From TrEMBL:
UniProt KW Oxidoreductase keyword: yes
Family stated for the protein in its record: Belongs to the acyl-CoA dehydrogenase family.
The protein, known as: Acyl-CoA dehydrogenase family protein
Span of domain Acyl-CoA dehydrogenase/oxidase C-terminal: 233-380
Cofactors: FAD
Organism annotation: Skermania pinensis
InterPro entries named in the record: Acyl-CoA_Oxase/DH_mid-dom, Acyl-CoA_Oxase/DH_mid-dom_sf, AcylCo_DH-like_C, AcylCo_DH/oxidase_C, AcylCoA_DH/ox_N, AcylCoA_DH/ox_N_sf, AcylCoA_DH/oxidase_NM_dom_sf, Glutaryl-CoA_DH_mitochondrial
Length: 387
């Protein structure tokens, strides 16, 4: 039997180093994540602190960044790492994505040399965890409307407001907080032990349960003047970081889809219905074939976008096209695989509904499907339809 990677000869498109990264992360996920995922999902927990040193040893934190202890690997290698993490669970990929593509990228891209030296080596080593505080209770798709404010008081800044749906928020040592100032939106580095900062775990989730999600409160949090990220000017600052994270999702969502297909193939080959394996029926094979083609097409798109990124040619609307296509395809695959497992598909004995539930979040965070449709529409027509 062929895997989808073999069907599309994916390995022929990868460099040896990229395959080594993929295999190393796959081994870590098999050894350290998969045996516990059902328990973590059911209990709504994730041992971020415990896993951080091992993830760091693999170079997963800020792996696409250069210097300051970061691995400096290719966009393709980073994408493949995201795919292997999300093949285990979207929560694991989210943790790495927030640490590296959001928090560390913000510091690496917009920070001073002193800020980079202070935070990035420790974050790359997993000694310091970060979060990225942009979304607010009333402002998700429209971050320009944020109410969190930073006001000058002498040489200091005083921040007040609230943030919501913040991954890693309850375990972060440093928060990259975006706030409105008199000059426009700005980014700040906020150590989470600063007086006035509070993080509350958000519970009762039906998706991304093996992930730590927080609501943040900022009650007149006082920061020194040098806490500001000087090169982050306006909304382009956080949006630039989000584009990095979305790129990881283009690959990551396919990992969840691939895991669902592998589970469905294994299940249907061993499950007997009317005295022969379920995999031996035409309807089953038609479903598997269609899903394999959708997954393979998404993988080819992801690899193409990665090569564009490595040449410095990747545009935001292309990232939007990748996220829109691949998250839609992954969610459809997860749902279809659930049908092949019948009633067994709704249990945590199998990963498919866990993946499907997670992908409901992946479809909408870091830009909903509708937002990405409008980004693509604007690129095609030259006319903005956001307002």
């Amino acid at each position: 039997m062929s895997t989808v990677d073999e069907l599309f000869a994916i390995d022929t498109l990868l460099q040896p180093e990229e395959q080594q990264v993929r295999d190393a992360v796959r081994g870590f996920a098999t050894r350290r994540l998969r045996p516990h995922l059902a328990e973590w999902f059911e209990s709504g927990t994730f041992p971020a602190r415990e896993l951080a040193p091992e993830m760091a040893a693999l170079g997963l934190f800020g792996m696409h960044l250069d210097g300051y202890g970061c691995a400096g690997l290719s966009a393709t290698a980073y994408g493949l790492a995201c795919q292997e993490l999300e093949a285990a669970d979207s929560g694991a990929r989210s943790m790495v994505s927030v640490q590296g593509s959001l928090a560390m990228t913000a510091i690496h891209r917009y920070g001073t040399d002193e800020q980079k030296r202070e935070w990035l080596p420790r974050m790359a080593a997993g000694d310091v965890l970060g979060c990225f505080a942009l979304t607010e209770p009333d402002y998700g798709s429209n971050p320009a409307g944020m109410r969190t404010r930073a006001v000058r008081d002498g040489n200091d800044w005083v921040l007040s407001g609230s943030k919501m749906w913040i991954t890693n928020g309850t375990v972060a040592d440093i928060a990259v907080v975006w706030a409105r100032t008199e000059e426009g939106i700005a980014g700040f580095l906020l150590p989470t032990d600063t007086p006035g900062f509070a993080a509350r775990e958000m519970r009762h989730k039906l998706s991304l349960r093996a992930s730590l999600t927080a609501e943040l409160d900022l009650d007149e949090v006082r920061l020194p003047g040098d806490a500001r990220l000087p090169d982050a000017r306006g909304l382009a600052g956080p949006l630039g970081c989000l584009s990095e994270a979305r790129f990881g999702i283009v690959f990551g969502a396919l990992g969840a889809a691939r895991d669902c297909i592998a589970c469905a193939i294994d299940y249907t080959c061993s499950r007997e219905v009317f005295d022969k394996p379920l995999a031996g029926y035409q309807l089953t094979q038609a479903k598997l074939a269609d899903m394999a083609v959708a997954l393979g097409t998404g993988q080819l798109l992801a690899l193409h976008l990665a090569r564009l990124k490595e040449r410095g040619e990747l545009r935001p609307e292309q990232v939007s096209a990748g996220k829109l296509n691949n998250t839609r395809a992954a969610l459809a695959i997860a749902r279809e695989c659930r049908t092949l497992l019948g009633a067994n598909g709704i249990t945590l004995d199998y990963p498919v509904l866990r993946h499907a539930n997670n992908l409901e979040s992946v479809l909408t965070y870091e830009g909903t499907a509708e937002v990405h449709q409008l980004v693509i529409g604007q690129a095609l027509t030259g006319s903005s339809a956001f307002r």
